[in-house]
Specification:
By secondary structure, the protein is an alpha+beta fold. It folds into two domains: about 45 residues; about 100 residues, GMP Synthetase, Chain A, domain 3. It has three helices and nine strands. The longest helix is centred in the middle third of the chain and has 23 residues. The two termini are about 30 Å apart.
């Protein structure tokens, strides 16, 4: 699978707010996500936690990439990320800010070109940069017969 190929993730509802997540094209186990009580049953990370994990994972991988690009061989990186949900003007929960902390395993003097690495690594992070810029999310809703109830009608039979 190339970097420019479409990425597909399939979710199927298990029960209540629990969903099985399957990553198309990858031979990896499915992931179970679930909302926190009282909506769900805390059977897995909720979508907010998955988003935070994606941001922290991407930042860590981007930092590792930038370090290696400048001929560094760091030990194991560690990251933590925190967000405090707040209600917006409409009373909906949002994450207005996240705080990610990346921990290098060695002292700064042990790295080559660290200043350049730190200036550029975030640019390699697809997830963080996409979230920062905003993502145009197009939503289509179909019924069991494939009729488009909301969104793009171009893929509908007879359209």
């Amino acid at each position: 699978m190339g970097i420019e190929d479409p990425i597909t993730v399939v979710l199927e509802q298990e029960e209540d707010f629990a969903f099985r997540i399957r990553f198309e094209g990858l031979d990896v186990p499915e992931v179970l996500s679930d909302e926190a009580a009282p909506l769900g049953h805390d059977q897995g990370p909720n979508p907010t936690r998955l988003l935070l994990a994606s941001i922290a994972n991407c930042l860590s991988a981007s930092l590792l990439f930038a370090l290696r690009k400048h001929r560094n061989t760091p030990g194991k990186l560690r990251a933590s990320i925190t967000a405090v949900p707040v209600r917006n003007a409409d009373g909906r929960w949002r994450l207005p800010q996240v705080e990610a902390t990346l921990h290098l395993p060695e002292a700064n003097a042990d790295y080559q070109h660290l200043e350049r690495v730190l200036e550029t690594f975030e640019d390699f992070c697809t997830v963080t940069q996409s979230v920062r810029q905003g993502i145009d999310v197009q939503v289509t809703v179909k019924d069991a017969l494939g009729h488009v109830l909301r969104g793009d009608h171009s893929g509908e039979a007879g359209a």
